[in-house]
């Protein structure tokens, strides 16, 4: 499948900003059932100072915002070809971050009583079948935490979302990751795009999780949709949690983000 993506983000500051940096993770990964046919990023109100791969092999662009601007616009357009045979199995671990690191909880995934209870329910599922156990965990998270836009924000932890029993794909992924780590699996967060035939215009990108299974390597779980990723998914960035895989992270001095507008279109070519 060929998937065309047009993703624009506009930041409006409350006053002219003297200094700001943006760390952008917007270019899809060129492996695991997908390849980039072309990708273009344009920035208005700033310029790209450096590009590099982080420890998770994410492509990162470091953008310096021009002094005195009140608005920054980032627009990405591209086309990615995905493999119709892909069914969520990413394969062996790659990158500079060691596999054991993904067993460690972070500030966003630290487990409490609610996440611990979910992990305990999934512990006995599937017998010796790791995939069955992880699918059961995914189903438990979705059954307990309803999808509700606005119930949480980017700083909400896995435990808080589980306690509220409401959240979005970011929260579903964090809860699954937290519980999977309690069960002994390395787990990580994935940010990317999902082609939906009935909804090319979208309000934001998508997020899901991956767990490492010895016999297979990394395996994806889209908790919000109750499936493993297939050819409709485009993987962009991975990390231990949202903070390490966020599409855009900004740092500014002398001004704050007043408003952010995102426009996203994901089409099949």
Structure description:
The chain has 269 residues and is an alpha+beta fold. It folds into two domains: 2-82 and 247-268, Sandwich (Immunoglobulin-like), CATH 2.60.40; 89-245, Roll (C8orf32 fold). Helices cover 19% and strands 43% of the residues. The protein contains five helices and 16 strands. The chain has helices spanning 113-123, 130-144, 158-164, 169-182, 242-245; strands spanning 2-17, 19-24, 34-44, 46-53, 59-65, 69-82, 89-91, 146-147, 166-167, 187-194, 201-202, 206-213, 217-221, 233-239, 248-253, 257-268. The strands form four sheets. It has a five-stranded antiparallel sheet with strand order 3-6-1-16-11, with no helix packed on it. A hairpin with a 3-residue loop joins strand 12 (206-213) and strand 13. Helix 1 crosses helix 2 (130-144). Residues 161-225 form the Transglutaminase-like domain. One of its GO terms (molecular function) is peptidase activity. This is Transglutaminase-like putative cysteine protease.
Work out the number of β strands. 16
Can you tell me the CATH topology of the largest domain?
Answer: C8orf32 fold
Helix content: 10-25%
CATH class of the largest domain: Alpha Beta
Give the SSE string: EEEEEEEHHEHEHEEEEEHEE
Shape, per Cα inertia axes: globular
Strand content: 35-45%
Q: Number of helical runs?
A: 5
Structural class: alpha+beta
Average pLDDT over all residues: 94
Described by strand count, sense and barrel closure, the largest sheet is: 5 strands, antiparallel
Sheet with the most strands: spatial strand order: 3-6-1-16-11
CATH architecture of the largest domain: Roll
Number of domains: 2
Q: What are the low-pLDDT stretches, counting only 5+ consecutive residues below 50?
A: none
First-last Cα distance: 8 Å
Radius of gyration: 18 Å
């Amino acid at each position: 499948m060929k998937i065309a993506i047009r993703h624009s983000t506009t930041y409006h500051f409350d006053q002219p900003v003297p200094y700001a940096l943006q760390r952008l993770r917007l270019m899809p990964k060129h492996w695991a059932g997908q390849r980039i046919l072309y990708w273009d990023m344009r920035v208005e109100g700033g310029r790209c100072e450096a590009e590099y791969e982080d420890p998770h092999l994410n492509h990162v662009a470091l953008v310096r915002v021009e002094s005195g601007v009140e608005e920054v616009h980032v627009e990405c357009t591209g086309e990615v070809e995905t493999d119709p045979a892909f069914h969520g199995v990413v394969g062996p671990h790659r990158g500079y971050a060691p596999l054991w690191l993904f067993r460690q909880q972070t500030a966003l995934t630290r487990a409490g009583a609610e996440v611990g209870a979910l992990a305990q329910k999934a512990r006995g599922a599937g017998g010796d079948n790791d995939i069955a156990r992880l699918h059961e965990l995914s189903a438990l998270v979705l059954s307990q935490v309803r999808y509700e836009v606005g119930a949480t924000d980017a700083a909400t932890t896995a435990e808080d979302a589980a306690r509220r029993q409401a959240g979005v794909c970011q929260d579903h992924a964090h809860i699954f990751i937290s519980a999977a780590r309690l069960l002994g699996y390395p787990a990580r967060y994935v940010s990317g795009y999902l082609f939906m035939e009935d909804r090319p215009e979208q309000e934001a990108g998508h997020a899901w999780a991956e767990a490492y299974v010895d016999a297979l390597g990394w395996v994806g779980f889209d908790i919000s949709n109750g499936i493993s990723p297939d050819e409709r998914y485009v993987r962009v960035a991975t990390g231990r949690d949202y903070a390490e895989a966020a599409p855009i992270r900004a740092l500014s001095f002398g001004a704050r983000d007043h408003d952010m507008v995102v426009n996203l279109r994901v089409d099949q070519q």
